[in-house]
Amino acid sequence: MVIVGGGASGTLAAVHLVRGAQARGTALRVVLVDRDGRHGLGQAYATADPHHLLNACAAKMSGLADDPGHLLRWAYEQGLNLDGPDFLPRRTYGRYLRDLLDGCARKMPYGGSVSKLTATVISLAAEGRSLRLRLSNGDTIDADAAVLATGNRPPAPWPSIEAGPRYVADPWSPGALTEICDGSPVMVVGTGLTMVDLATTATRANKDTVVYAISRHGLLPRPHRCPPSPAVEMFPPGGELRLAGLLRMVHTAIRNNDGDWQGVVDGMRPHVPGLWARLGLDDRRRFLTSMARYWEVHRHRIPPATAARIAHLQATGRLRVLRGSLVSATAGRDEMRVRLDADGVGRELGVGWLVNGTGPAADVTGDPFLGGLVDAGLARPDPLRLGLDAEEYGAILDAAGRSHDRIFTLGPTLRGVRYETTAIPEIRTQAAALAPRLLETLATGGLALESSAAVM
Ligand SMILES: Cc1cc2nc3c(=O)[nH]c(=O)nc-3n(C[C@H](O)[C@H](O)[C@H](O)COP(=O)(O)OP(=O)(O)OC[C@H]3O[C@@H](n4cnc5c(N)ncnc54)[C@H](O)[C@@H]3O)c2cc1C
Known about the structure:
The protein is α/β, with parallel strands linked by helices. Helices cover about 35% and strands about 20% of the residues. Helix 1 runs parallel beside helix 3 and helix 4 crosses helix 9.
């Protein structure tokens, strides 16, 4: 059993599989392959900056779908002073995921194992009842089943930016943010959570740093209310669903909740995958072009401490949020010259660093590995090209729309199918749903895993 991608999705898939195997008393050999060696951490939890906090409180961040108190108990055992409403540093959460994975691996019954392998999977081919994965180092792995947990893609290349040593094309690649802390001005394209992280790190590292952030709307993520609002129970309508009707329902719920939108957004969240699947394609497109940005800033909120820091940076002129777009950028020796259209006025600026913080690229065909699966007809993008097309529980669909019984996916790759699919509560639920199906597949098809790869 191979899991491609060792971030939170791959890790939680492995953990739920191992727990399932333990419960059934069956042997299972899992290889968790990660390109960057960030097993348990992935993009979100590999940060070394202790000021990068989770954007959800600890009570909501257990890695186990059936054990909501697990993270809090882990924190207690570690001697951490943590309460349910607290926001943990993301690097500590990464440590938690690693511990969870290692703890499960130690309890594998009947000679089963969990191995962590650092390598890039470059292709996957179905050969009879077996899958053959090729790695960038020339090794191959034959497996009964595979889980594609490749996570978020790097941001799409920005047209009209001339690449140079002072252009950071992917802020989440390992070590990308270490250089931008030299005190020179930083410009971020995008005003979402990536920008918040970046502004936090760059301005703390150097008291002279000024951060410019530009996006079409200039909208920043909203802060969490403290104490948090209880989630409002929502009852979406049955029958034919239209976006306009959904919007009316949400506005009415906010009015009935004395204007407190946070409880309504949180109450809507578990319904999103079901509603998304029921919406027509045109309505889903309409949502993406005109509403998604507003949903995102209200749904993915930042902790009060982070919000206070961002407000302070804005008040002192060290964070300047611009509404508009980047027209072009050229690379100089010691700076990037950027041309902007901000609030309808053309402007030119020299900055020390330019960072693409526009968020993950959607189209999976741009990823060499996933694109290869699509070319081979083993997978297909979803109709909106936000990820992979798949059954509700993660079995991917091939070019003809048939669900594959041995290749599954979870997490951000399911964006087109479920929309809300990137945060831990959604990922752990998907991992818990996936595990019994996969174990059933393995039980009926026998278990064989041969690897020519060196296993760490
Ligand atoms: C900055 C940030 C903060 C977040 N904060 C929170 C939060 O507070 N609470 C919350 O619930 N959610 C949060 N999230 C969302 C969520 O937890 C992450 O999106 C989640 O960690 C996704 O994990 P993943 O494993 O799917 O993807 P990733 O973390 O991207 O991991 C995928 C891994 O797969 C590897 N990979 C890809 N292709 C291959 C290949 N071909 N071969 C081998 N390896 C490959 C990559 O190298 C990568 O390590 C945050 C996300 C980000 C980006």
